[in-house]
What we know:
The complex is a heterodimer of chains A (232) and B (208).
Chain A: H1 3-14, H2 21-33, H3 35-58, H4 65-111, H5 113-116, E1 121-122, H6 125-129, H7 136-139, H8 145-149, H9 153-167, E2 171-172, E3 186-193, H10 194-199, E4 211-218, E5 224-231
Parallel strand pairs in A: 1-3
Antiparallel strand pairs in A: 2-5, 3-4, 4-5
Chain B: H1 3-13, H2 17-39, H3 42-58, H4 70-89, H5 126-136, H6 140-151, H7 156-163, H8 167-184, H9 186-189, H10 191-207
Helix pairs in contact in B: 1-2, 2-3, 2-4, 3-4, 4-7, 6-8, 7-8
Amino acid sequence: xxxxxxxxxxxxxxxxxxxxxxxxxxxxxxxxxxxxxxxxxxxxxxxxxxxxxxxxxxxxxxxxxxxxxxxxxxxxxxxxxxxxxxxxxxxxxxxxxxxxxxxxxxxxxxxxxxxxxxxxxxxxxxxxxxxxxxxxxxxxxxxxxxxxxxxxxxxxxxxxxxxxxxxxxxxxxxxxxxxxxxxxxxxxxxxxxxxxxxxxxxxxxxxxxxxxxxxxxxxxxxxxxxxxxxxx
Amino acid sequence: xxxxxxxxxxxxxxxxxxxxxxxxxxxxxxxxxxxxxxxxxxxxxxxxxxxxxxxxxxxxxxxxxxxxxxxxxxxxxxxxxxxxxxxxxxxxxxxxxxxxxxxxxxxxxxxxxxxxxxxxxxxxxxxxxxxxxxxxxxxxxxxxxxxxxxxxxxxxxxxxxxxxxxxxxxxxxxxxxxxxxxxxxxxxxxxxxxxxxxxxxxxxxxxx
Lengths: 232, 208
């Protein structure tokens, strides 16, 4: 080993780094035979001792207790807002979901008025627009049409019930009609032409007016289920 | 990374304060001393230590166990924070003009710490004070390898992980840093030379 090679190794030798035995033997043999390299090794070893003394002197140095306190406080604060934010998020999600559910329920109910009012009696607009249109009572001269159009809904219902008693039973328009299912259907009063009446399969041979006042039982899907003639 | 370190980190991520406290107790000393030896200031070391663990609290999931120990990861954070601080506060002064050990002109690149042992520093032993001063006046890239390998007793591999460089780079920097330190501390090791130099200087003044 020459001086140049020794200089490369001297710090590792002084730091007691792991070197192979052959390298160590060569290095120390060279140091024994070269005063300059021996002095280098001594300087490097002295430096190692100084640095170790310094390391030992500071080995117990650590951050003050205040730092730990501050960090633990920060840790708690970091944890707490996160959990409360999660709670707030869930609270808002639950609230929004609740409002959405109520709105959907309301829309469904608004779209299904017949669920709330199983049986309704309507006065067809045509009947109102045409006060001169005779009904059975009008034919008998006992009712004023204008007065009839001004009646309240309850009056109309009563009139319909009277009509039902006077006009007789409904005639089924399809074989599947079941009077027991009337609760979910609606009765609609309409003005039909004779041809329309005959298209329902109800022959109408009466002469005179071409239009007929009738009540239709209409299913939920809009299909007429039964009919009865109220007046003409 | 040891098993218990990973377990503690998991517990800490789940909000376990005791796990955080244990991790802190385990790692804070090395980080504090690294910052202290690098800056020469207990106040800076304190701030850096606190900020390192604040970073751990804020970003627990960033640590990748496959890339080294938690201590090395935290030391790396501490090193970055120190460099930011050095840049921000400009606590450096020019290295004394002169020649390096190999005869080249020394450049004042501004990357040398000026901090000396403060008056309230507990260091009483003169030799330790001189060594400390010598370490603090090393260029940063040499200082950090001395602090890690010689003062913190990290292996070349561990130091390389902290410094994000090759093991060979750590070894060569340490070699050079120790040569610089040896030069700085020559008076301490060979006081006769200093006395002789002082005598020569005094004689020259008297003659003039």
